[in-house]
Design goal:
This protein is of the alpha+beta class and 215 residues long. It has helices at 10-18, 31-44, 64-67, 71-89, 93-109, 115-132, 162-177, 186-189; strands spanning 48-50, 56-58, 136-141, 144-149, 205-208, 211-214. It has eight helices and six strands. It has a two-stranded antiparallel ribbon with strand order 1-2. It has a two-stranded antiparallel sheet with strand order 3-4.
């Protein structure tokens, strides 16, 4: 899946966003940055997605405008993905899972998204996490750029002090506390976050853990 030329700037944007963990929840994102992240996520969104209950969600890649969400709401998703990325860098895996689940509960309770848009929202979160931890790269293909996941690349080598780890934990705890509570069967039904055995999609792209594999 090829991307637009403007997406090339997202790699630089990602490096700027990592910045200070202390301000991870406060930094705002420009519309240009948000749209770049959205393009990455769209390029990696599968044509079919299988939920844990066996339901298959079909996504018509020719109807992009019907699947993408508004920029302002995408910005909130990206901010949540950024927090999850910081949690992963600081080895706070449980916090990353809780953060993703809180995000999805927030979006589900709005009752305004189609199943296809919910898949895209989750993919936008995952793509943001992978971008900020260095798992996404661009490769040349017939004169254009293609977004792919670098399976061999380790998470970006970054230091995370005890103070930063504590700050990320506090930010995620506040985010989860301000989110709708999980349903009674949340343990059995909640979708896992990046790195926690995410459901596998079928079609052109498969989501497995924190990686997306082209088929």
């Amino acid at each position: 899946m090829n991307t637009r030329v403007g997406v090339v700037l997202a790699g630089v944007t990602a490096l700027a966003l990592i910045g200070s963990v202390a301000s991870a929840g406060a930094q705002d994102l420009s519309e240009k940055a948000v749209k770049s992240f959205m393009e990455y996520a769209w390029a990696l969104t599968p044509q079919q997605f299988s939920k844990q209950d066996g339901t298959v969600i079909l996504i018509d890649k020719s109807k992009k405008d019907e699947v993408l969400v508004p920029v302002d709401e995408a910005r909130d998703v990206i901010k949540a993905g950024r927090l999850s990325a910081h949690a992963q860098i600081c080895e706070l895996r449980d916090d990353a899972v809780a953060n993703h689940r809180a995000l999805m509960r927030r979006e589900e309770i709005k009752k305004k998204w189609t199943p296809q848009q919910m898949v895209y929202i989750s993919q936008l979160h995952l793509t943001t996490l992978m971008l900020l931890t260095g798992r996404i790269k661009l490769v040349e293909k017939q004169g254009d750029k293609e977004v792919v996941v670098d399976e061999e690349k380790k998470v970006l080598a970054q230091t995370c002090t005890d103070e930063q780890r504590k700050k990320v934990n506090e930010l995620i705890a506040a985010y989860v506390a301000a989110s709708p509570p999980p349903p009674a069967k949340a343990v059995a039904t909640a979708p896992p976050a990046a790195g926690q055995g995410a459901p596998t999609s079928t079609g052109s792209t498969a989501i497995t853990g924190s990686a997306v594999e082209k088929k």
